[in-house]
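> tool_call: predict_assembly(chains=two)
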Amino acid sequence: MAAFTEAAHAVAHEPHDEVKHVRMNRLGLWLFFASDGLVFALLLSARFYMNGTDTAPDVKQWLGLIITSVLLISSYTAYRGETALHHGNVAHGRLMLMLTILLGVGFFAGVVMEWSIAEFTVSEGYGTSFFSMTGMHAAHVASGVLLLFLAWRKAGKGYYDGGGLKAYGVSGVVMYWHFVDVVWVFFYPALYLIK
Amino acid sequence: MTRQVSSASSHHGGSEATDQKRGLTVIAMLAVFTLVEYIFAVVLDAPAALVVILAAIAVVKAWLIVMYFMHLPLVWQGEEA
């Protein structure tokens, strides 16, 4: 019995099995992105349906550019963190994940600041679009920060030591963070730049 | 630069330094595109043209992130063992 258990354990941990497992996880994550992306696409289309290409003249361009830059930089630090952990460089990976978390918090704070100084309300046409789109996106940023923090903690406990496929957990979280960035790539011009 | 980025879709294919360099190339391109869309929004006074230009830039930026940061090709290429 013990021999059978040992054999089953060995088969379950064959490299090929691990590769297959990671591949399925990756596919599942992309299916999630597709479904979640549809929600954001609907919000984006609703924005144009309700307001055409009109943008509030008093939207804070400087703030929009700053938070966009912060989110883009956080994508880079997330990539560096993922890469470092994949190569087994845990200390650098954790540092980059923490930087990403701080940048994410900074982005969230910028959105909250925008909400607090906005000169339009949620009941106005543009305001409805603005608050629903930034609100939904900020909720994803908040959950992304939480997931990054969990990955940072797990990295500290040695879960990703050795890198390679063992670090896929970090890749999944970082991919989610990039997805949040991709959404903002479309939201930023739609909410701030068109006129 | 183009050659460097084009090989980046193979997830973590090289050394850590090579991967970091690829990331730097992609983020530099994203920064340039963001600056370009901001400048277009400030100087261009043709709303219809602006929408088309901004949409095109957004698609290119999203493509860069999806291909090089999110490693989309791995969905069909598979993981390295």
